[in-house]
Specification:
The structure is a single chain. By secondary structure, the protein is an alpha/beta fold. The protein has helices spanning about 15-35, 50-60, 80-85, 105-115, 135-150, 170-175, 185-190, 215-230, 230-260, 270-300, and strands at about 1-10, 35-45, 65-70, 95, 120-125, 160-165, 195-200, 310. Strands 7-5-6-4-1-2-3-8 form an 8-stranded mixed β-sheet, sandwiched between helices. Helix 5 (about 135-150) runs parallel beside helix 8. It is elongated and about 95 Å long. It binds uridine-5'-diphosphate and magnesium ion. Magnesium ion (MG) binds near residues 102 and 210. Magnesium ion binds near residues 102, 205 and 210.
Length: about 325
């Protein structure tokens, strides 16, 4: 018999968990009835400050065959929560899903069939639109996806959700990537394998609010670009060479003008402008380089990506 683990990261989601469980369990019962797949839900409480961990523990007590949990010692972020789930999943298929029901549970069946009958290694969900999302967020997301595709050369699909089902083999490949600066939307296309995309209409959150502030999203986007592209560093070097050539030309011009006209005072304003302009550009580029160095520093520390405070994995049946 085949097994499926659904990894569900939760951060301050006490209002959503029971509702999520009621909805997902119907689909999981169907999966068992029609395809004999035994499923298990692995909740990862990502350091919630509300009652998420209590709600999850109670569910695990009530339905020990179906629910297990990992409670992280603080909020490590969704990527780390997912990684914690990946490290502790033993099933044949692994799925990632948000708890706010923005990921339609019934797609799980199509995902399973895509892998089982059509030979895909991964079946992932993609929103057709961003209805209900603030305009500025949508524009930002579009620009980000365009940039990261151009810079990384990877097929990072616009509107792609983390919601997907993958095979054990694909999970092992994901686990073989040991980097700390994890950007799953890039890691999945990077490891390759065959992915099928299922499109669906955007769903708004049932309860609670998004856990991503705009600034968190900007840093997430920067992390993604730095993790998958060295193009900004190369662009800086090319810019440096071009500006060096231009300043050599300018120097030649100034020297020749001095020899011909002997006019030492004129040109101060433009000189000041030039100094200011070039030094400000230098600051900007040193910042970009610093960003990469910061990431290298973090990677070199080899810190664990999450710390578990409590878990129910001894109860896990799958
Ligand atoms: N989440 C998490 N840790 C975080 C932020 C979010 O585990 O630091 C979880 C959250 O509880 C939800 C999922 O990740 O299950 C997606 O978060 P959210 O719905 O806020 O993101 P959005 O759908 O707005 O992109
Ligand atoms: Mg959401």
């Amino acid at each position: 018999m085949e097994s499926l683990t659904i990894i569900v990261p939760c951060f301050n989601e006490e209002q959503n968990i029971e509702n999520y469980y009621t909805n997902i369990i119907k689909v999981l019962d169907n999966l068992f009835a029609h395809y004999q797949v035994i499923s298990n839900i692995l909740f990862i409480d990502d350091g919630s400050t509300d009652n998420t961990s209590e709600v999850v523990k109670k569910l695990a007590l009530d339905f020990p065959e179906k629910v297990s949990y990992i409670i992280l010692s603080r909020n490590f972020g969704k990527e780390a929560a997912l990684y914690a789930g990946f490290c502790h999943s033993k099933a044949d298929y692994i799925s990632i899903m948000d708890v706010d029901l923005q990921d339609p549970p019934e797609l799980l069946i199509d995902m399973y069939l895509g892998i089982k009958n059509e030979g895909f290694d991964c079946v992932a969900a993609r929103r057709k639109n961003r209805a209900g999302e603030p305009l500025i967020r949508s524009i930002f997301a579009k620009v980000f996806y365009y940039l990261i595709r151009r810079l990384s050369g990877l097929q990072i699909v616009d509107g792609a959700r983390d919601y997907r089902m993958i095979t054990r083999q694909m999970l092992d490949a994901i686990l073989s990537l040991k980097e700390s600066n994890r950007f799953s939307k890039g890691l999945f296309p990077w490891i390759g394998f065959k992915t099928k995309w299922l499109e669906y209409e955007n769903m708004e959150r049932t309860l609670g609010s998004t856990k991503w502030s705009f600034s968190k999203l900007v840093f997430y986007a920067l992390d993604g670009i730095v993790a998958f592209s060295s193009v900004p560093l190369i662009a800086v070097s090319i810019f440096g060479i071009i500006s060096m050539l231009l300043s050599l030309l300018l120097m030649a011009f100034v020297i020749i003008r001095k020899i011909i006209y002997d006019d030492p005072v004129a040109g101060w304003p433009s000189l000041v402008c030039l100094i200011l302009f070039t030094s400000s550009i230098q600051y900007f580029f040193i910042g970009i380089i610093g960003f990469y160095i910061g990431k290298i520093y973090n990677e070199s520390k080899h810190r664990p990506q999450f710390i578990i405070k409590d878990n129910s994995l001894t109860l896990q049946k799958v």
